[in-house]
């Protein structure tokens, strides 16, 4: 799926680590590309380096080796064209939902957003009637919708999702997976979704990049080339799930 709104992301030869007394190697020569408007899942075990990788694409950190590009230009810092949605909604508890949604762009130096845009974003995620309430009055799923609205109000070209549905119950999670796909289709942004959930990756993505345990390197990339909505009991789904676990198991044997 090619889109005019979505940005092209290129992660090229990225290695990264942290000085924790000794050097902790976290990313090992990672190269991943996402075409404009593509939905790419980055699938790897906990602690493999997925969040670190996403932070580099967000521009919150610079890679020690290699480079990350948006539409061919090196990413040098955070920018409103690249939105980030975390596992926790990180809403300010003393601000209303509407104020929280309006705060993202201001914090990124884009100036105040008009209320119409904020309300449009809230409408988009099904929170039209909740702009005036405080985050404490929202359920977990609603809070995550608000976090989504906060990212969407910027009309980002790339949305980076760091296990955004990880803390939700399975029914709410299923609901929001559908919502994510609808927004992605409507808005045309490029989506990079970090997850450790194989089924979630298959439900959502055009392409799945399998990452090894830390230090993360790309084990394999698989296309998910059957239509959405994807039913976990569909034989193609079952087969792909098995193929993915095979790659993961074989990589464990290699080590
Ligand atoms: N700022 C940091 N300083 C030191 N170690 C870090 C830092 N950020 C992450 N790590 C370490 O890097 C590894 C990968 O972390 P992370 O990218 O959060 O993995 P994932 O998101 O796949 O669970 C972990 O061992 C974590 O402890
Ligand atoms: Mg993480």
TrEMBL record:
Alphabetical list of Gene3D superfamilies matching this protein: P-loop containing nucleotide triphosphate hydrolases
SMART domains: AAA
Gene Ontology molecular function, alphabetical: ATP binding; ATP hydrolysis activity
Signal peptide extent: none
Record's keyword terms, sorted: ATP-binding, Cell membrane, Membrane, Nucleotide-binding, Translocase, Transport
Domain ABC transporter: residue ranges: 9-238
Residue ranges crossing the lipid bilayer per the database entry: none
UniProt-listed InterPro entries: AAA+_ATPase (IPR003593), ABC_transporter-like_ATP-bd (IPR003439), ABC_transporter-like_CS (IPR017871), ABC_transporter_ATP-bind (IPR050166), P-loop_NTPase (IPR027417)
CDD domains given in the database record: ABC_NrtD_SsuB_transporters
UniProt protein name: Putative ABC transporter ATP-binding protein
């Amino acid at each position: 799926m090619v889109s005019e709104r979505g940005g092209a992301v290129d992660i090229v030869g990225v290695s990264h680590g942290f000085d924790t007394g000794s050097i902790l190697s976290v990313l090992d020569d990672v190269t991943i590309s996402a075409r404009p408007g593509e939905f790419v899942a980055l699938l790897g075990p906990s602690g493999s380096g997925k969040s670190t990788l996403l932070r580099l694409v967000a521009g919150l950190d610079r890679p020690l080796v290699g480079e990350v590009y948006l539409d061919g230009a090196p990413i040098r810092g955070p920018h409103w064209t690249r939105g980030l949605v975390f596992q926790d909604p990180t809403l300010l508890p003393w601000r209303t939902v509407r104020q929280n949604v309006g705060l993202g762009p201001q914090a990124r130096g884009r100036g105040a957003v008009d209320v119409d845009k904020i309300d449009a974003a809230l409408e988009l995620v099904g929170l039209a009637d909740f702009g005036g309430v405080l985050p404490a009055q929202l359920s977990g799923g609603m809070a995550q919708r608000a976090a989504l609205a906060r990212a969407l109000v910027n009309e980002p070209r790339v949305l980076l999702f760091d296990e955004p549905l990880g803390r939700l119950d399975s029914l709410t999670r299923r609901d929001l997976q559908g919502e994510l796909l609808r927004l992605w289709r409507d808005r045309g942004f490029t989506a990079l979704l970090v997850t450790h959930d194989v089924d979630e990756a298959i439900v959502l993505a055009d392409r799945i990049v399998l990452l090894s345990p830390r230090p993360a390197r790309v084990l394999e990339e698989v296309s998910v080339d059957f239509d959405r909505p994807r039913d976990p009991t569909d034989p193609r789904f079952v087969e792909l799930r098995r193929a993915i676990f095979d790659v993961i198991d074989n990589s464990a044997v290699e080590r």
